[in-house]
Specification:
It is built from 9 helices and 11 strands. By secondary structure, it is α/β, with parallel strands linked by helices. The chain has a single domain, classed as 3-Layer(bba) Sandwich (FAD/NAD(P)-binding domain), CATH 3.50.50. Strands 1, 2, 6, 7, 8, 9, 10 and 11 form an 8-stranded mixed beta sheet that branches. The longest helix is centred in the first third of the chain and has 18 residues. It is globular, with a radius of gyration of 18 Å. The protein starts with a helix and ends with a helix. Bound molecules: ligand 48F. Ligand 48F binds next to α2, β2, β7 and α8.
Length: 257
Amino acid sequence: MALDEIIITKAIIDRYYEKLINNLETDVAIVGGGPSGLVAGYYLAKAGKKVVMYERKLSIGGGMWGGGMMFNEIVVQKDAIHILEEFGIRFREFQENYYTADAVEAISTLTSKAVQAGLTIFNCVSVEDVMMRPEGITGLVINWSPVEMAGLHIDPLTVRSKFVVDATGHATEVVKVAVRKVPGKLMTPSGKIEGEKSMWADHAENLTIENTREVFPGLYVVGMAANATAGGPRMGPIFGGMLLSGEKVAGELAGRL
Ligand code: 48F
């Protein structure tokens, strides 16, 4: 049967439109497609919640593809091995408590399993603002990343969600917007972003999990964004904390929804 370009075009437009319209109102909207956001999205979807993710870049995965300094292997400690097992990501013991996995297998599998569990991902979409109400943050303001990159003067669109998760890593982009533009204070000692501290892997890994929480009504932080908001140190290419942080935020939100 001959293939018709117009049907191909119509199929893409129809299906994308369906995804878009179905995700205007969700339980959870995750900003950023790094490891912590993907794990959060997977567990929330698995728990039957309606969850969407916006990622600025064309490719999902954030800082996981490149391992450490482009050596595309990651290290995961024992506490988080159950998450690799849950996703079916292969790993090898390096020495006691240090396991390695192929970074490309890890991030592509996190992405694939999260989508198959029910997470809807919109790539090439940047979150530039939040929607606010007296009770807190109630959604996101989104635009095409190429619009942002080209500096075009085009108004964004808005989506509503019961909770927003900032999974933007070191940048803490959603929290930054909230601090700058939403009346009120963050649930941090200074009421503002405490700012990420220098390398201390052991301490940072524990703090990442501790700092994974609600920081403003309706807004949670996960992964590196959790430490950057709360003033925790960075940890480099050990990823157990990112995975456990995603698992934790999903559990907390599933409990509240
Ligand atoms: O940085 P990233 O991988 O976040 P993460 O899940 O993991 C951190 C680790 O990769 C690593 C680390 C562990 O040792 O410290 O850095 O905390 O992924 C963040 C994603 O968010 C996207 C960005 O492109 C990246 O893929 N992002 C950032 N700002 C926005 C955004 C935005 N405003 N809108 C949409 N996506």
